[in-house]
Design brief:
The chain is mainly alpha-helical and 214 residues long. It has eleven helices and no strands. Helix 5 runs antiparallel to helix 8 (140-155) and helix 6 packs across helix 10 (174-182).
Length: 214
């Protein structure tokens, strides 16, 4: 009886310890990604070392390597995490980015948010999109962006929604946004305004008269 009563306690203790380790791992991952984002933005990916990230995050270098293997893995994980956060807002966040707004307004909100994401993580986006020919089209994130844009364009009644979605995303590539940002007279706000205007134009059917026409 006493042996049987001790087994659940030991099992519960092991479960609590495992849960604590998982919680610690999640916290450490968040600290590392935040630290890497700060350092990459300040110094550039090439100049940041894994040791510097570990110090900034307040974790051991061994912990960092166990979680991310190398700097490339860390960079990819950071971009994946920021894209995942944006996806959650896009799919279930408040309108106009999330459900509840008109399709054209949701599309414009997506474009505004995506320009901001690319601008903030430009070096990482460029690395992921230009790693090999056609790399941008093979990513799971791009497939989701394309499906989302195509769906909103279709709901808005735009002709050829698939082609229009591809045209819009081509204009939002890392290379294109990086090129615009390299011009001295352009900034993120101007690019965002132009691209949201483009998205609204793509969401309209030119055969349908606008209010006041006819």
């Amino acid at each position: 009886m006493s042996i049987g009563s001790r087994a659940p306690a030991r099992g519960q203790g092991e479960a609590r310890a495992a849960g604590s380790r998982r919680a610690d791992a999640v916290r450490n991952r968040g600290k590392v990604l935040d630290a890497a984002e700060r350092l990459f933005a300040r110094d550039g990916v090439e100049r940041v070392t894994m040791q510097a990230v570990a110090k900034e995050a307040g974790v051991g270098v061994g912990t960092l390597y166990r979680g991310f293997t190398d700097k490339a893995g860390l960079a990819i994980a950071l971009l994946d995490e920021r894209e995942r956060q944006f996806q959650e807002l896009m799919l279930s966040g408040p309108p106009p980015l999330g459900p509840g707004a008109e399709p054209a307004e949701r599309l414009a909100a997506f474009v505004a948010g995506y320009v901001g994401l690319v601008a903030e993580q430009l070096e990482l986006v460029l690395l992921s999109q230009t790693a090999s020919p056609g790399a941008r089209f093979r990513s799971g994130a791009h497939a989701l962006w394309r499906t989302h844009c195509r769906h909103l364009l279709d709901l808005a009644g735009a002709p050829d929604p698939e082609l229009r979605a591809d045209a819009l995303l081509a204009a939002l590539s890392g290379e294109m946004i990086g090129h615009w940002l390299s011009e001295p007279d352009r900034d993120v706000a101007e690019i965002t305004s132009a691209m949201t205007g483009l998205s609204r134009s793509l969401a309209s059917d030119p055969a349908t008269p606008s209010p006041g026409q006819g």
